[in-house]
Amino acid sequence: MSHIILAVVIGAAFGFVLDRVGATNPGYIISMLRLGNLHLMKTILLAIGVSSVIMFAGLLAGIIDPGHLDIKAAYLGVFLGGALLGVGFAAAGYCPGTGLAAAATGRKDALFFTAGGLLGAAAYMGHFAWVESTGTLESMAGGKTTLGKIAGTEYPALFEGMSGETIGIVMGLVFIAVAFALPARLRGEGKAERTVQAPSRTADVVKR
Amino acid sequence: MVLNWKTGGVLLGLVFLMAVVLVKPIGVSTQFVIFDGIVWDMVSPDVVVEAPEAKSGYASPNAYLNKSGGKYARNVANPLNYSFVFVLAMIAGAGLSAFLRGGVDRSERTMPAIWQANFGTSSWKRYLVAFAGGFIVLYGARLAGGCTSGHMMSGMMQTALSGYIFAAGAFAAGIPVAMYLYSKEA
């Protein structure tokens, strides 16, 4: 039962923050991917960096249970699936989490995204046995591999002799540094914010 | 309106951290499968059956629901589990946030401004691409075994090799497609 309460609290916080950082706005996602406005990119990199540094420091200090970590396996399908997701992500401006969250904020296109997503997931369910038979899902580089060895876990490490916690803190700091180093935009001119914040006047035509 | 990237990034990071400290890393896309499974099981009840010999206690004739000892089959049979409730709460949290900030601009509800700048005002065109995009995104996420939250954020946060591979694939495809499709800025 306590797990359900945690699911409600953490889930609600996640949805709330996703909306507040602008991730429920497909304009920000598309602008990030076309490198016109890197607001979300900087936000995401900083989030990964901050959570990583504190998490690995907490593991070192012994105040975070390493059993809570959950490393996913590496296999060819991770890259292929990532690329497929990237195509849809760019076209629609939504990913699974932000699509659902955006639908809740009243975006109608996000409802269509969600419906397509449910169908896509169902299609994969139907194709799974075939996909598995192609070998695309076979683990590579040890499978559930992390960069360094994380104490208290069984995950194989890419750099066996190195402390996974130290690498984690360093990588986290790198993410933070990149978040700060990235410019607001890499292409186009004018103010980055204009891209998605001010709906054009003609936008009113749309709702009819 | 939108939080600046420093405040937003720290808050988002703290949510991901809180999830690992208290329970487990955040992930979303699996729940599309669980939802499909729940609907499918309602239509044809033998999609998920109790199976004492399975590791999870449940089994399915569908290979995907049946994988890893019937882990997904069990969650389909018991929707009141952490991961599914988490996603429902995420939806509610986003809705609450939008409500408190006065909702999404009416002109934005059908399509973002950048879409309109490139493809005009036809709402059905936008809905069609959003639907197709959703299909590809979830098919890809299930093939990859996770999505932006599970692989990219939770994965790279934990220095998982799979997280970097996923991010490389997603941006290698996403950036050129976005640059090609959306040549005009809003």
Structure characterization notes:
The complex is a heterodimer of chains A (208) and B (186). Chain A has 208 residues and is mostly helical. Chain A has a domain at 22-70 and 163-190. Chain A has eight helices and two strands. The longest helix of chain A is centred in the middle third of the chain and has 26 residues, at 108-133. Chain B has eight helices and two strands; from the N terminus they run ααββαααααα. Chain B has helices at 5-22, 30-43, 63-77, 82-100, 113-119, 123-144, 148-157, 161-181, and strands at 49-50, 58-59. By secondary structure, chain B is mainly alpha-helical. Chain B has a two-stranded antiparallel sheet with strand order 1-2. Chain B folds into two domains: 17-103, no CATH class; 106-186, no CATH class. The chains are: A mainly alpha (208), B mainly alpha (186). Chains A and B meet through helix 1, helix 2, helix 3, helix 4 and helix 5 of A and helix 1, helix 2, helix 3, helix 4 and helix 5 of B.
Q: Provide mean pLDDT of chain A, rounded.
A: 91
State the oligomer: heterodimer
Nearest-integer average pLDDT of chain B: 95
Radius of gyration of chain A: 20 Å
Q: Give the strand order, joined by hyphens, for the main sheet of chain B.
A: 1-2
Structural class of chain A: mainly alpha
Low-confidence stretches of chain A: 191-208
Q: How many β-strand stretches of chain A?
A: 2
Largest sheet of chain A: 2 strands, parallel
Number of strands of chain B: 2
- Which sheet architecture does the biggest sheet of chain B show? 2 strands, antiparallel
Can you give the helix content of chain B as a percent range?
A: 55-70%
Task: Name the largest protein-protein interface in this structure.
Answer: A-B, 140 and 128 residues
Describe the global form of chain A. Answer: globular
Number of helices of chain B: 8
Strand order of the largest sheet of chain A: 1-2
- Termini separation of chain B comes to 18 Å
Helical residues, percent of chain A: 55-70%
Low-confidence stretches of chain B are none
Shape of chain B: globular
Strand % of chain B is under 5%
